[in-house]
Amino acid sequence: MEIKFTFEEKEIQKVVRRFAREDILPIRKEVDRQGDLPEGIKERFIEMGFLRSPFPEAYGGVDGTFTGLVIALKELSYGSMIPAWMLFENFMLAYPLLRYGSEFLKDTYLPGLISLETIGALAFTEADTGSDPTQLKTVAERVKGGWLINGSKRFITNSGICNHMILFARTGNDVTAFVVQSDKEGYKPGKRETFIHSAAFDNGDLYLEDYFAPDDHVIGEVGQGFEILLQTEAVGKIAFSAFFIGLAERALDLAVQYANTRTHRGKPIGGKFQMTQWKIARMMVRIEAMNAYLFHVCARVDGGKEIFTEAALLKLMVAEEVKAVILDAMEIHGAYGLSQEYEVADLYRTAIGAQVIMGSLDIQRVIIARGILGKAHYSHHS
Fold first, then answer.
1. Mean pLDDT score of the chain, rounded to an integer?
2. Which of 99, 167, 210, 239 is buried most, with the most CB atoms less than 10 Å from its CB?
3. What was the pLDDT predicted at 340?
4. What are phi and psi of 283, to 5 degrees?
């Protein structure tokens, strides 16, 4: 499919595609197991500066596009989800800092996040709430010079290894966003989780016990936290969806390779069985549709347009389609698709994460329906 990228975006695609396929893919199993890149490859990955694209030069960026970052995430995920996730978690703190943070916060934290010298995170989810801010129990109480934060968070990626994070807490009847530093007193990582989609991620509980956040570590205004969360997660869903399109493209390539080499009575199954051909055609249709809508929404972000409903639509679409694509790939592989010796089984396990991370699919359906019902009639956005 021909999508009109800028010269810079095409260069990002070329460089990242080569890096993912030549350097990461051959060691994919090791990378996925360790949750990190080997030292030499990691140094080159950091030097390439893929996260710089959508950020201003003043903070270490290159004044590029959000599309450029999404291209990098998709191409990296073809090789492994791990390096893409490194960029994503830092982006989820860097983006709200750029959009809502004071000059002090941007100068202090953005250069390290963008260069990957520091590790970022986002902490909203709690044991009794997934998407509803009214149920937050983590509380920030005003004290002299700042806020004392008490409470707990659950399923927080990087909470055991990050340097700093954006954390959401109740301030009276509202929600406020804070920059929280992991090396300060009162920050305590709890139990680590093991997930089937990626056992190597650092993810788990977080406890805040009289953690002091200075006034200058409030992101945006006091009480603006819910708006910041919604905007950050909307853009985050787009970046997140790119991971799984990369996975789907890898699944298609594996299915084609298998169909061309696996034989039945001397003939490749891809050339012999129409049902195999039908599955491959269906996989391609789904991947082309996902790519088209992904970069349509990216163009809206770069054009400064609203993407709240579109981001939910993309996330729902990709979560459903990637599962179908990889299931087709597994069926083409037959019993080998269930073998952990074959990559397609790993892809299927990873793809399950798209169903629940960054908002459940039912929540996305509600967002989409409300967006449509709120208009007099459906029409394509200009």
1. 92
2. 167
3. 83
4. -60, -45
Q: Is 3.50.50.60 the CATH number for 226-373? A: no
Which homologous superfamily is 7-115 in? Acyl-CoA dehydrogenase/oxidase, N-terminal domain (1.10.540.10)
Give residue 122's pLDDT.
96
Cα–Cα distance measured from residue 170 to residue 136, given in angstroms and rounded to the nearest whole number: 7
Q: Is the pLDDT of residue 382 over 70?
A: no
Which range, 30-39, 238-247, 263-272, is most confident?
Answer: 238-247
Q: What share of the chain is helix, strand, coil (3-state, %, to 5)?
A: 60, 15, 25
Q: What is the pLDDT of residues 93-119, one digit of tens each?
A: 999 999 999 999 999 999 999 999 999
Helix/strand/coil for 343: helix
Torsion of CA 296, 229, 96, 3, to 10 degrees: -10
Task: Please state, in angstroms and rounded to a whole number, the distance separating the CA atoms of residues 178 and 257.
Answer: 49
Give the pLDDT of residue 69: 98
Q: Which CATH number fits domain 122-222: 3.40.50.1240, 3.40.50.1400, 2.40.110.10, 3.40.190.10?
A: 2.40.110.10
Cα–Cα distance, 210 to 256 (Å, whole number): 56
